[in-house]
Amino acid sequence: MTVAAHLDDLRADLPGCSLVVFGDFFSQITLCVSSQDKHPQERLDALCVSAGSLLDGPVAQVVTAAMGLPDNSAFSQAILLSPSSMQIFLRSPAEESDMLACVLSLDADAETATNRARAALQLIAQV
After folding, report:
1. Structurally, how many domains does the chain consist of?
2. CATH number of residue 33's parent domain
3. Distance, CA of 23 to CA of 127 (rounded, Å)
4. What's the pTM value of the predicted model, to 2 decimals?
């Protein structure tokens, strides 16, 4: 199964999911997308930038300091809520720079979406 097929399956399996992006957050580029609608490349790459900021970058550093965690702590997931959507960001357990981002409606079940996205990311690591 291809990465694109895994992303399509994940999006279809998550009620309220409009976009799934697989990317490299070190280089901040999108590698593969599953979407209901066409999105500009800048929007897709912005999700990779957000993942980097939330999982490794400035936001992660602020949270690490606020929680009194060791400086080398790495986050494996983050959830960002906006007035119109929920964005879930996951770091691949297999490849440090790989990330998955899901954009969902606010009424989506965050725990279910995170678990299913994590399972998809593990499958993608085997491709």
Report:
1. 1
2. 3.30.450.30
3. 14
4. 0.91
Please report which confidence band the pLDDT of residue 74 belongs to, taking 50, 70 and 90 as the band edges: confident
* 73 pLDDT more than 80: no
- Give residue 47's domain range: 3-125
101 C-beta neighbours (distance < 10 Å), count: 26
SS (H, E, C) the chain: CCHHHHHHHHHHHCCCEEEEEEEECCCCEEEEEEECCCCCHHHHHHHHHHHHHHHCCHHHHHHHHHCCCCCCCCCCEEEEECCCCEEEEEECCCCCCEEEEEEECCCCCHHHHHHHHHHHHHHHHCC
107-116: per-residue pLDDT in tens?
999 999 999 9
